[in-house]
Amino acid sequence: MAHQRTYLVLENYIGGKFTPCSSHIDSYDPSTGEVYCKVPDSGEQEVELAISAAQEAFPEWSSKSPEARSQILYKLADLIEAHLEEFAQAESKDQGKTITVARNIEIPRASYNFRFFASSILHHTTDCTQMDRMSCTHFTTRTPVGVAGLISPWNMPLYLLTWKIAPAIAMGNTVIAKPSEMTSVTAWMMCKLFDEAGLPPGVVNIVFGTGPRVGTAIVSHPNVPLISFTGSTSTAQYIREASAPYCKRLSLELGGKNPAIIFDDANLDECVSTTVRSSFSNQGEICLCTSRIFVQKNLYKAFLEKFVEASRKWKVGLPSDLTANMGALISKEHLQKVKGYISQAQKEGGKILCGEGIESLDIPDKNKMGYFLLPTVITDMMDDSCCMQEEIFGPVTCVVPFETEEEVIQRANNVKFGLAATVWSQDVGRVHRVAKKLHTGMVWTNCWLIRDLNLPFGGMKASGVGREGAKDSFEFFTEVKTITMKH
Ligand SMILES: NC(=O)C1=CN([C@@H]2O[C@H](COP(=O)(O)OP(=O)(O)OC[C@H]3O[C@@H](n4cnc5c(N)ncnc54)[C@H](O)[C@@H]3O)[C@@H](O)[C@H]2O)C=CC1
Ligand SMILES: N/C(=C\C=C\C(=O)O)C(=O)O
Predict the structure, then answer these.
(1) pLDDT, position 349
(2) Which entry of 46, 181, 253, 356 is annotated as an active-site residue?
(3) Mean pLDDT of 413-432
(4) Is the CATH number of domain 8-255+463-486 2.40.240.20?
(5) Lowest CB count within 10 Å: 69, 194, 350, 451, which one?
(6) Which residue numbers delimit the Aldehyde dehydrogenase domain (predicted)?
(7) Protein residue with least CA distance to atom 12, ligand 1
(8) How does pLDDT run across 106-127, given as a tens digit for each residue?
(9) CA nearest ligand 2 atom 2, residue
């Protein structure tokens, strides 16, 4: 008898109920290249139902006290934490990331996102000014905006989705959310917890499917006044155009081409180990990953030697391997795209020092069709080459020398993106000068990716519009009104 394959079949979550979909998209296990899950291929009809459910839930949810909403968010955080291991296993299988990253970083952060905004809404204040000469007091009020459209990517699935859902509902909005069709499993699992957490039906609706069908229907819907999106700059451009007729409020968190600037007085061991991490964490699939490393001439040779040695030790393995530093990339297409950049670099005169084409992968036979790639270090690249200008979003990084502070600032700024940078030096004055002159939304000095969720997260130039964080998300997810009282 022929062996019948069984798949994990996801359902939309609309108005507090799981609703099946008649057609599905194949979702692949990146470590084997095999289909293991079927994701609803929803369209306009499902989006309409979800927006209606969100509109219906809005009056009651938005009039709840912050304390009441906060309790529900805390409960949801507790429930995610109680199921941490199931979420971590599912995220690692669905995305290809290591179980270590899913278990120790991403799922705990998804739970913390709810806890963070559950607390932060209890401490909001609004502005008030006095105008005694006119016998007036002015003050502002803030109210939720309405139905929030939230679209998230595949690189940190639950972590980035909850970073949007938590502030949106904490401030009293209701939600239609669309995770990436490539990584929908943990969002679906989270829906199973909403009822137990006490979230009323319709407050969060999740519609699974592709960008062109579900995403387009959300961003061009007149009853969704606000869109928060994380993903590529090209999709963001489309969203700006599609939403323009409705004057929607947009928060766009996009790609980066993040420089590491390493001066010759930097602590070499620390900057090598952190820059390996910043280049290759999560397979280089984080918008904050370093992909251009500028090293001051006197340190260049020593840095390169140690950096290549450390990159070779950055172990690629199965996502379930506890000793692996890196798992599989998200998809076959993405793997081809990243490899394409490496070939292009060689055509443009680049020299590959380790990784793709130099060493071989050590992966079990049953995973040979998985989307694995070794951490790859390239030198001898011109600043205007593809690999130095475009977002690769994979484990590929370029190392180039520089001589002076002025020169490196100009070269680091010479890309269309402006998300994040790292600066390495023991000269405090220099660190401050350089950080101020970089055209990026975030600068980490002598460290990387240490986050205070209170402070603004986001980029300049093609890296985005708007910021997320305690105060910024409060402002984005609420409508402000100025009231003047004459007395
Ligand atoms: N966090 C980041 O900065 C991310 C950057 N990227 C960059 O984008 C490149 C392409 O990756 P993609 O998966 O194609 O990113 P993408 O921007 O197309 O996908 C992000 C989200 O947008 C949705 N989407 C796609 N088309 C849409 C549309 N027309 N309307 C509304 N939503 C839409 C997707 O379904 C997904 O949920 C990557 O190689 C990487 O360079 C991708 C994902 C995350
Ligand atoms: N937005 C992304 C990463 C965020 C990291 C953080 O909030 O700590 C991304 O990769 O798109």
Answers:
(1) 96
(2) 253
(3) 98
(4) no
(5) 451
(6) 22-483
(7) 232
(8) 999 999 999 999 999 999 999 9
(9) 287
